[in-house]
Structures are given as structure tokens and as C-alpha cells.
Amino acid sequence: MNLLISACLLVAGFFLLVKGADWFVDGAAGFAKKLGVPQLVIGLTIVAMGTSAPEAAVSITAAIRGNADITIGNIVGSNIFNILFIVGTTALIMPVTFQDGFLVDTIVAVAAGFLLLAGVAKTKTLKKPVGIVMLIAYVIFYLSFAIEL
């Protein structure tokens, strides 16, 4: 494929990815709001999953194609960007108040980072057993949300 076609496909794919995630998040958040779901819960679940869905699609596709390095770069880079740039920029605009439940979620996010680090520290390879532990931790985390609601 020539460079121009690849560049056009990249731009078109990026646009569709962003627009699709935007529509998904707007629809899901509006639906949840009509059901009376609190904004914090909407942000921590529906919006978080909606904005992460394109990342998941890219990462899973990359892994299937044997490009796991893209997956790690995508996820780690995204988390660094989200935590440092987005939260930092938001704090510049206005103070960010953390509610008690959100502090627990922040601890879970830090623990997830340490789990990733522990999983790759010795062999520099993330293997299936650690992946299974991570998926189980994810399910437990979101089930705890469902139980609280």
C-alpha cells in the first residue's frame, strides 16, 4: 500500500474512532443519567469503558497480529497521559475534589500499575497467569461497583 493511501486510512480511522467513542459515551452517559445513576459512577464505568473501548480494540488487534509492544505502549502511554496531562490540566483550570470512593479507585489504579510492574519485573514478559489475575481483578472491581449500587 502506498504512503498516501496509508496516511488517508490513518486519518479516516482516527476520525471514526474518535467520533464513534464520542457517540458511544454520549449515548451511554445520557441513558445512565435518565436511570438516575450518579455522575461519578457514570464517569468511572460507562465513560471510562467507552473511552477505553478504542484502546482495547487497537490493543487486542495488535496482540492478535503479534505486535504486543503496541499494546503496552498504548495502554501505559494512555495512562500516563490521562493521569499527568488530563488531570493536571483539569487542576490548572479548577480544583479537583476527590470524594471518598474516588480515593479508593485511585488506590486501585495505582495497585493495577504495581500489578503490571510485578508481572513483568522478573522476566520482562507479561504471561497468561498474570493476565488472568488482572482480568479477575478487573471483574472484582466492577462487581464491587454493582454491589454498591
What does this structure look like?
The chain is mostly helical and 149 residues long. The chain has helices spanning 3-34, 39-64, 68-93, 100-121, 128-148. Helix 1 (3-34) packs antiparallel against helix 2. The protein is globular. The protein starts with a helix and ends with a helix. The model has no long low-confidence stretch (mean pLDDT 84).
Work out the helicity level. Answer: over 70%
How many strands appear in the DSSP assignment?
0
Overall radius of gyration:
18 Å
Low-pLDDT regions: none
Name the beta content range.
under 5%
Query: How would a textbook summarize the main sheet?
Result: none
Give the integer mean of the pLDDT values: 84
Query: H/E order of the elements?
Result: HHHHH
Shape: globular
Distance between the termini: 50 Å
Which class do the helix and strand fractions yield?
mainly alpha
Number of helices: 5
Quick take:
The protein has 149 residues and is mainly alpha-helical. Helices cover 85% and strands 0% of the residues.
Write the layout of secondary structure elements.
Elements: H1 3-34, H2 39-64, H3 68-93, H4 100-121, H5 128-148
Helix pairs in contact: 1-2, 2-3
List keywords for this structure.
149 residues, 5 helices, mainly alpha, globular
